[in-house]
Amino acid sequence: MASPGIIVPAYFGPQYGGTNLSNWNQKLTNAAATLGLSLIVVANPYNGPGLEAPLEDDGGDELRKKLTPKDRPVRGTNRNGSGEYWQAYLDAIRGVRNTNGAKVIGYVRTDRTTISQAKARSDIDTWIDWYHQRPGAGIDGIFLDEVSTDPAHISYYRQLYDYVQAQLPNGIVVNNFGTAPDPAYFNIGNSILIIQEDTYARFEGGLQTSKPLDQWSCTQLARSGILIHTTAGNAGNGKPKWENVLNNTYSNYLRWYYCTNDPFVNTTTDNPWDTLPPYFDQMVGETARYGTFVRVTCRWAKFWNWLRRLLPFEVLR
Predict the structure, then answer these.
(1) Global pTM?
(2) Which domain does 121 fall in, by range?
(3) DSSP state of 133
(4) Residue 64 has pLDDT above 60, yes or no
(5) CATH number at residue 141
(6) Which of 48, 119, 122, 114 is nearest to 86 (CA)?
(7) Residue 262 CA to chain centroid, in angstroms?
(8) Tens-digit pLDDT profile for residues 267-287
(9) Cβ(29)–Cβ(99) under 8 Å?
(10) Among 93, 120, 121, 266, which has the highest number of CB atoms less than 10 A from its own CB?
(11) Which helix (H) or strand (E) holds 14?
(12) 202: which DSSP letter?
Protein backbone atom coordinates (compact mmCIF):
# COMPACT_ATOMS: atom_id res chain seq x y z
CA MET A 1 0.00 0.00 0.00
CA ALA A 2 1.29 3.44 -0.93
CA SER A 3 2.24 5.99 1.71
CA PRO A 4 0.05 9.09 2.23
CA GLY A 5 -0.50 11.48 -0.64
CA ILE A 6 -1.95 14.98 -0.67
CA ILE A 7 -5.19 16.14 -2.29
CA VAL A 8 -5.18 19.94 -2.50
CA PRO A 9 -8.56 21.69 -2.87
CA ALA A 10 -7.03 24.61 -4.80
CA TYR A 11 -10.06 26.90 -4.73
CA PHE A 12 -8.01 30.00 -5.48
CA GLY A 13 -7.55 31.54 -8.89
CA PRO A 14 -4.19 32.18 -10.51
CA GLN A 15 -5.94 34.80 -12.66
CA TYR A 16 -5.92 37.16 -9.68
CA GLY A 17 -2.11 37.28 -9.68
CA GLY A 18 -0.05 37.84 -6.54
CA THR A 19 -0.09 35.05 -3.95
CA ASN A 20 -2.68 32.97 -5.80
CA LEU A 21 -0.56 32.93 -8.95
CA SER A 22 2.63 32.02 -7.07
CA ASN A 23 0.75 29.33 -5.15
CA TRP A 24 -0.09 27.64 -8.44
CA ASN A 25 3.03 28.37 -10.46
CA GLN A 26 5.57 27.84 -7.68
CA LYS A 27 4.28 26.05 -4.60
CA LEU A 28 1.97 23.56 -6.31
CA THR A 29 4.47 22.95 -9.11
CA ASN A 30 7.23 22.39 -6.55
CA ALA A 31 4.94 20.01 -4.66
CA ALA A 32 4.35 18.13 -7.91
CA ALA A 33 8.10 17.79 -8.39
CA THR A 34 8.44 16.39 -4.86
CA LEU A 35 5.40 14.11 -4.64
CA GLY A 36 4.69 13.14 -8.25
CA LEU A 37 1.83 10.65 -8.36
CA SER A 38 1.17 11.29 -4.67
CA LEU A 39 -0.25 14.75 -5.45
CA ILE A 40 -3.74 15.50 -6.73
CA VAL A 41 -4.75 19.14 -7.20
CA VAL A 42 -8.43 20.04 -7.47
CA ALA A 43 -8.95 22.99 -9.82
CA ASN A 44 -12.07 25.05 -9.16
CA PRO A 45 -12.25 28.24 -11.23
CA TYR A 46 -15.85 29.16 -10.43
CA ASN A 47 -17.74 26.40 -8.60
CA GLY A 48 -16.90 24.37 -11.65
CA PRO A 49 -14.97 24.87 -14.89
CA GLY A 50 -15.47 28.65 -15.13
CA LEU A 51 -17.58 31.07 -17.12
CA GLU A 52 -15.81 31.05 -20.48
CA ALA A 53 -13.27 28.95 -22.31
CA PRO A 54 -9.61 29.96 -21.96
CA LEU A 55 -8.11 31.59 -25.05
CA GLU A 56 -4.67 30.52 -26.16
CA ASP A 57 -2.12 33.21 -26.94
CA ASP A 58 -0.81 31.59 -30.12
CA GLY A 59 -3.35 33.35 -32.34
CA GLY A 60 -4.45 30.08 -33.86
CA ASP A 61 -7.03 28.94 -31.33
CA GLU A 62 -10.35 28.10 -32.93
CA LEU A 63 -12.27 29.88 -30.21
CA ARG A 64 -10.35 33.09 -30.86
CA LYS A 65 -11.11 32.87 -34.56
CA LYS A 66 -14.83 32.77 -33.84
CA LEU A 67 -14.78 36.05 -31.91
CA THR A 68 -15.27 39.40 -33.60
CA PRO A 69 -12.82 42.17 -32.58
CA LYS A 70 -15.36 43.77 -30.25
CA ASP A 71 -15.90 40.45 -28.44
CA ARG A 72 -12.24 39.71 -27.87
CA PRO A 73 -11.07 40.30 -24.30
CA VAL A 74 -8.70 43.13 -23.57
CA ARG A 75 -5.32 41.78 -22.47
CA GLY A 76 -4.68 42.18 -18.78
CA THR A 77 -8.31 42.73 -17.79
CA ASN A 78 -9.89 40.63 -15.06
CA ARG A 79 -13.40 40.45 -16.38
CA ASN A 80 -15.22 37.28 -15.33
CA GLY A 81 -16.42 36.70 -18.86
CA SER A 82 -12.99 37.11 -20.42
CA GLY A 83 -11.38 34.08 -22.00
CA GLU A 84 -7.95 35.45 -21.16
CA TYR A 85 -9.12 35.81 -17.57
CA TRP A 86 -9.50 32.02 -17.47
CA GLN A 87 -6.37 31.40 -19.55
CA ALA A 88 -4.32 31.69 -16.36
CA TYR A 89 -6.04 28.55 -15.07
CA LEU A 90 -5.13 26.60 -18.18
CA ASP A 91 -1.49 27.70 -17.90
CA ALA A 92 -1.39 26.84 -14.18
CA ILE A 93 -2.93 23.42 -14.76
CA ARG A 94 -0.34 22.73 -17.45
CA GLY A 95 2.48 23.62 -15.05
CA VAL A 96 1.37 21.22 -12.32
CA ARG A 97 0.20 18.40 -14.54
CA ASN A 98 3.39 18.33 -16.61
CA THR A 99 5.60 17.97 -13.54
CA ASN A 100 6.60 14.50 -12.38
CA GLY A 101 3.27 12.79 -13.00
CA ALA A 102 1.17 14.91 -10.61
CA LYS A 103 -2.56 14.97 -11.32
CA VAL A 104 -5.08 17.78 -11.73
CA ILE A 105 -8.82 17.11 -11.54
CA GLY A 106 -11.79 19.40 -12.14
CA TYR A 107 -14.40 20.42 -9.57
CA VAL A 108 -18.07 19.53 -10.15
CA ARG A 109 -20.78 20.25 -7.57
CA THR A 110 -23.62 17.75 -7.02
CA ASP A 111 -25.42 19.18 -3.95
CA ARG A 112 -26.48 15.75 -2.62
CA THR A 113 -28.06 14.89 -6.04
CA THR A 114 -30.19 18.06 -6.28
CA ILE A 115 -27.97 19.01 -9.23
CA SER A 116 -29.40 17.14 -12.20
CA GLN A 117 -27.45 14.46 -14.02
CA ALA A 118 -27.64 16.62 -17.14
CA LYS A 119 -26.07 19.62 -15.39
CA ALA A 120 -23.33 17.54 -13.74
CA ARG A 121 -22.51 15.87 -17.05
CA SER A 122 -22.49 19.25 -18.76
CA ASP A 123 -19.88 20.48 -16.26
CA ILE A 124 -17.79 17.36 -16.90
CA ASP A 125 -18.05 17.96 -20.66
CA THR A 126 -17.01 21.58 -20.18
CA TRP A 127 -13.94 20.58 -18.20
CA ILE A 128 -12.91 18.29 -21.04
CA ASP A 129 -13.73 20.74 -23.84
CA TRP A 130 -12.06 23.76 -22.24
CA TYR A 131 -9.12 22.26 -20.37
CA HIS A 132 -8.44 18.77 -21.67
CA GLN A 133 -8.45 19.19 -25.43
CA ARG A 134 -5.59 21.71 -25.50
CA PRO A 135 -1.95 21.08 -26.51
CA GLY A 136 0.11 20.08 -23.49
CA ALA A 137 -2.84 20.59 -21.15
CA GLY A 138 -5.49 18.28 -19.77
CA ILE A 139 -7.25 17.11 -16.66
CA ASP A 140 -6.92 13.70 -15.08
CA GLY A 141 -10.38 13.31 -13.64
CA ILE A 142 -13.25 14.89 -11.74
CA PHE A 143 -13.81 15.90 -8.10
CA LEU A 144 -17.49 15.46 -7.22
CA ASP A 145 -18.37 17.69 -4.27
CA GLU A 146 -21.25 17.62 -1.79
CA VAL A 147 -21.84 13.93 -2.42
CA SER A 148 -24.79 12.27 -0.71
CA THR A 149 -24.06 9.56 1.86
CA ASP A 150 -27.52 8.02 1.34
CA PRO A 151 -27.28 4.53 -0.22
CA ALA A 152 -30.47 5.34 -2.14
CA HIS A 153 -28.40 7.79 -4.24
CA ILE A 154 -25.66 5.37 -5.26
CA SER A 155 -27.08 5.00 -8.77
CA TYR A 156 -26.72 8.76 -9.37
CA TYR A 157 -23.01 8.67 -8.54
CA ARG A 158 -22.35 5.40 -10.30
CA GLN A 159 -23.75 6.96 -13.48
CA LEU A 160 -21.46 9.96 -13.09
CA TYR A 161 -18.48 7.69 -12.45
CA ASP A 162 -19.25 5.70 -15.60
CA TYR A 163 -19.70 8.93 -17.56
CA VAL A 164 -16.27 10.20 -16.50
CA GLN A 165 -14.70 6.88 -17.48
CA ALA A 166 -16.36 7.05 -20.89
CA GLN A 167 -14.93 10.54 -21.49
CA LEU A 168 -11.60 10.07 -19.68
CA PRO A 169 -10.68 6.37 -19.64
CA ASN A 170 -9.06 5.49 -16.29
CA GLY A 171 -9.80 8.99 -15.08
CA ILE A 172 -9.66 9.77 -11.36
CA VAL A 173 -13.03 10.26 -9.66
CA VAL A 174 -13.07 11.66 -6.12
CA ASN A 175 -16.36 11.61 -4.22
CA ASN A 176 -16.33 14.17 -1.39
CA PHE A 177 -18.88 13.07 1.21
CA GLY A 178 -17.47 15.17 4.03
CA THR A 179 -18.26 12.31 6.39
CA ALA A 180 -18.13 8.54 6.28
CA PRO A 181 -20.62 7.27 3.68
CA ASP A 182 -22.53 4.03 3.45
CA PRO A 183 -19.94 1.29 2.69
CA ALA A 184 -21.84 0.45 -0.50
CA TYR A 185 -20.27 3.54 -2.08
CA PHE A 186 -16.97 1.64 -2.22
CA ASN A 187 -18.59 -0.45 -4.95
CA ILE A 188 -18.45 2.48 -7.37
CA GLY A 189 -15.49 1.57 -9.54
CA ASN A 190 -12.10 2.66 -8.25
CA SER A 191 -13.24 6.03 -6.94
CA ILE A 192 -11.53 7.85 -4.06
CA LEU A 193 -13.77 8.64 -1.08
CA ILE A 194 -13.29 11.72 1.11
CA ILE A 195 -14.62 10.38 4.41
CA GLN A 196 -14.07 13.51 6.51
CA GLU A 197 -14.02 17.22 5.72
CA ASP A 198 -14.04 19.06 9.02
CA THR A 199 -12.26 21.15 11.63
CA TYR A 200 -9.23 19.84 13.47
CA ALA A 201 -11.19 19.80 16.73
CA ARG A 202 -13.75 17.41 15.27
CA PHE A 203 -11.05 15.36 13.60
CA GLU A 204 -9.36 15.01 16.99
CA GLY A 205 -12.65 13.83 18.45
CA GLY A 206 -12.59 10.83 16.15
CA LEU A 207 -14.05 9.90 12.78
CA GLN A 208 -17.76 9.17 13.02
CA THR A 209 -18.11 5.84 11.27
CA SER A 210 -20.40 2.85 11.65
CA LYS A 211 -17.34 0.81 12.63
CA PRO A 212 -13.76 1.71 13.65
CA LEU A 213 -11.19 2.27 10.91
CA ASP A 214 -9.23 -0.78 12.03
CA GLN A 215 -12.21 -2.86 10.92
CA TRP A 216 -12.25 -1.36 7.42
CA SER A 217 -10.71 -3.44 4.65
CA CYS A 218 -7.28 -2.47 3.35
CA THR A 219 -8.83 -1.74 -0.04
CA GLN A 220 -11.32 0.69 1.54
CA LEU A 221 -8.57 2.47 3.46
CA ALA A 222 -6.41 2.75 0.34
CA ARG A 223 -9.24 4.59 -1.41
CA SER A 224 -10.07 6.97 1.45
CA GLY A 225 -8.95 10.47 2.35
CA ILE A 226 -9.59 13.34 4.77
CA LEU A 227 -9.60 17.14 4.36
CA ILE A 228 -9.00 19.03 7.63
CA HIS A 229 -9.15 22.79 8.12
CA THR A 230 -8.77 25.16 11.11
CA THR A 231 -5.43 23.60 12.08
CA ALA A 232 -3.53 26.68 13.29
CA GLY A 233 -1.14 26.13 16.19
CA ASN A 234 0.05 23.04 18.00
CA ALA A 235 -1.93 20.13 19.40
CA GLY A 236 -1.89 18.98 23.00
CA ASN A 237 1.17 16.81 22.35
CA GLY A 238 3.15 19.88 21.27
CA LYS A 239 3.27 18.89 17.61
CA PRO A 240 1.79 21.01 14.83
CA LYS A 241 -1.79 19.96 14.22
CA TRP A 242 -1.12 19.22 10.56
CA GLU A 243 1.59 16.75 11.59
CA ASN A 244 -0.89 14.91 13.81
CA VAL A 245 -3.23 14.63 10.83
CA LEU A 246 -0.40 13.18 8.71
CA ASN A 247 0.52 10.73 11.47
CA ASN A 248 -3.11 9.65 11.77
CA THR A 249 -3.40 9.21 8.02
CA TYR A 250 -0.25 7.10 7.99
CA SER A 251 -1.05 4.95 11.03
CA ASN A 252 -4.58 4.21 9.78
CA TYR A 253 -3.32 3.33 6.28
CA LEU A 254 -5.43 6.04 4.66
CA ARG A 255 -4.11 7.07 1.25
CA TRP A 256 -5.00 10.77 1.01
CA TYR A 257 -5.11 13.82 3.26
CA TYR A 258 -4.84 17.62 3.32
CA CYS A 259 -4.60 20.25 6.05
CA THR A 260 -4.95 24.01 6.14
CA ASN A 261 -4.94 26.58 8.91
CA ASP A 262 -7.78 28.47 7.23
CA PRO A 263 -10.86 28.65 9.49
CA PHE A 264 -14.45 27.86 8.58
CA VAL A 265 -16.48 29.81 11.12
CA ASN A 266 -18.98 31.65 8.97
CA THR A 267 -20.46 29.04 6.65
CA THR A 268 -21.78 31.76 4.34
CA THR A 269 -18.60 33.77 3.75
CA ASP A 270 -15.62 31.63 4.82
CA ASN A 271 -13.79 29.39 2.37
CA PRO A 272 -11.15 27.25 4.10
CA TRP A 273 -9.67 26.21 0.75
CA ASP A 274 -9.01 29.64 -0.76
CA THR A 275 -5.25 29.68 -0.14
CA LEU A 276 -2.39 27.39 0.84
CA PRO A 277 -1.36 27.15 4.50
CA PRO A 278 1.93 28.77 5.60
CA TYR A 279 3.30 25.30 6.41
CA PHE A 280 2.46 23.87 2.96
CA ASP A 281 6.07 23.35 1.83
CA GLN A 282 6.93 21.68 5.14
CA MET A 283 3.87 19.43 4.88
CA VAL A 284 4.88 18.37 1.37
CA GLY A 285 8.43 17.59 2.48
CA GLU A 286 7.27 15.59 5.49
CA THR A 287 4.78 13.65 3.38
CA ALA A 288 7.56 12.74 0.98
CA ARG A 289 9.72 11.65 3.94
CA TYR A 290 6.95 9.32 5.12
CA GLY A 291 7.13 7.73 1.69
CA THR A 292 10.66 6.53 2.49
CA PHE A 293 9.59 4.64 5.63
CA VAL A 294 9.54 0.86 5.71
CA ARG A 295 6.45 -0.36 7.50
CA VAL A 296 4.33 -3.44 7.94
CA THR A 297 1.75 -3.78 5.19
CA CYS A 298 -1.88 -3.10 5.96
CA ARG A 299 -2.81 -6.76 5.69
CA TRP A 300 -0.05 -7.88 8.04
CA ALA A 301 -1.05 -5.18 10.53
CA LYS A 302 -4.65 -6.37 10.43
CA PHE A 303 -3.55 -9.99 10.86
CA TRP A 304 -1.46 -9.02 13.88
CA ASN A 305 -4.35 -7.11 15.45
CA TRP A 306 -6.65 -10.06 14.85
CA LEU A 307 -4.11 -12.38 16.44
CA ARG A 308 -3.75 -10.14 19.50
CA ARG A 309 -7.49 -10.19 20.03
CA LEU A 310 -7.62 -13.95 19.59
CA LEU A 311 -4.74 -15.09 21.80
CA PRO A 312 -4.00 -14.37 25.48
CA PHE A 313 -1.55 -11.53 26.09
CA GLU A 314 0.98 -13.93 27.69
CA VAL A 315 1.33 -15.87 24.45
CA LEU A 316 2.28 -12.74 22.49
CA ARG A 317 4.48 -11.13 25.13
Answers:
(1) 0.89
(2) 5-316
(3) S
(4) no
(5) 3.20.20
(6) 48
(7) 16
(8) 788 899 999 999 999 999 999
(9) yes
(10) 93
(11) none
(12) H
